Here is the input.
Amino acid sequence: MPEITIREAISQALWEEMERDSRVIILGEEVGLWGGTYAVTRGFYDHFGPERVRDTPIAEGVIVGAANGAAMAGLRPVAELMTINFAFLAMDQIVNGAAKIHYMFGGQFRVPVVIRAVGGGGRQLGATHSQTPDAVFAHFPGLKVVAPGTPHDAKGLLKAAIRTDDPVMFIEHATLYQAKGEVPEGDYVEPIGVAKVQRQGSDVTLITYSKMLQLSMLAAEQLAAEGVQAEIIDLRSLRPLDMGPAVASVKKTNRAVVVEEGWRSFGVGAEVASRLSEEAFDYLDAPVKRVAQEEVPLPYNRELEQQALPQVDDILKAVREVL
Here is the structure.
């Protein structure tokens, strides 16, 4: 299989779905003539034209609201938000519109909209442009939340998101666009709401997703050199949250560390740890440890920013504590 970047994988998924289904459209800030803030839609405007690749005003509520309306009218829009931080300006359209319309209209309307948003820190963009609020969106029933960590999953999950009749928040990490991995040629989809074992192990379970998958893999390599085999569970989707592989792994390893980039309080790790306590308590030989971002607005200074974000050493420390 060819090795491509996550940027290329996402771009391929969008292109192939637009070729496959004329109802798929793209709208957002600078997605057309500029080719997207992260160059994901470069060349789309010239090929598909301004009717299907629409540049919008800098107004996130309008972008998502227009996408909701287009979806209800029969299109399958992909709305791009320049960063997930700007999704706060569209919260009403996302959580009171897209997430609830199908339910509140008794199933008479569907909202097959995909909201692509770039999240995460590590690029010195300051506290208001570097957040990882994934758990906020995963809190709302009716909204699917997907956050891939590999090119293979980015392409397959985005295709699945475009094809589903439900609204999907598709979260891409800002520092992962250049990450490479094998991606099959031809059409394929990955199921939304299904976690994946990314590495087999027997001594400790690392449960993670998105950018932290990459760090967990690096930590697992170092642990292997010490004779510790870590099994890595990639959640991939936060809603629906598939705990099956994580629970099965903990029943084997008896120890778990949850690794997320968001803040520790009220986060994804808290939910996963609670589920493990409910579903696998008798198998745990140590408390579930959580690795997360420091509880501060992310600093602009590069050294301070990296100090606040989870690092491989933080994962290693947590693993050694549970062992």
